[in-house]
Amino acid sequence: MSTPTRRAAVLGSPIAxxxxxxxxxxxxxxxxxxxxxxxxxxxxxxxLPGFLDGLDxxxxxxxxxxxxxxxxxxxxxxxxxxxxxxxxxxxxxxxxDGRRIGDNTDIPxxxxxxxxxxxxxxxxxxxxxxxxTASSALAALxxxxxxxxxxxxxxxxxxxxxxxxxxxxxxxVHIADWAEADLGLRAPLxxxxxxxxxxxxxxxxxxxxxxTLFDVLYEPWPTALAAAWxxxxxxxxxxxxxxxxQAVLQVEQMTGRAPAPLAAMRAAGEQALAAR
Length: 276
What we know:
The protein is of the alpha/beta class and 276 residues long.
């Protein structure tokens, strides 16, 4: 009797750039899951309900990227406390009885990526930017930062958002203008959550003895800020580290197999990026 095929995929728009298929397929190969497949689909908010309704029982789970992490919420049967804390889901697992359960592996993925570089606790931190990733950064910091977090933002609306997330997550958030972001580089942990190019001007402002930088971008890599940070001999955690650690948790949830092969997944991601 043949083993039934199991399916998973990443959804988003745009999606062609996603490394998730590379990482998940590497995990399946390492785990000997020859009957598993992982694809990518261009799906936006409008087409998401129809896509979900068209899935059959062969589907084990989905990874979600922008702009779907909040659009998915009303379409689920339940979400984890972690996902609820930031109102964002990047992982959906389909149960045997057909329910859709959402989780957020970005937050524990951030914590695992930092722990891998020896960062378990800090007494303060800085967050550059105030978008969707910044709320996940605050959620991660709520577990490892014992003191205040300063968020460097460009607008009053973003400032209000970050204050709101801080209150919700139990994090003491101080707001500073983006024009003062160079001061944030002195924090023991700096998390850059901004789009490509946004922190390039800060590369010349890296202090002589910086702490740890977590730059969530993985392409282009290294960013100008990450390169300047590394040149000072300080620790840098990159977007690929985050992507791999959150994907490890997704693989474990979707397949029921643990531990997922972190080293094989990272090697596959590095190889794919080098080929671009």
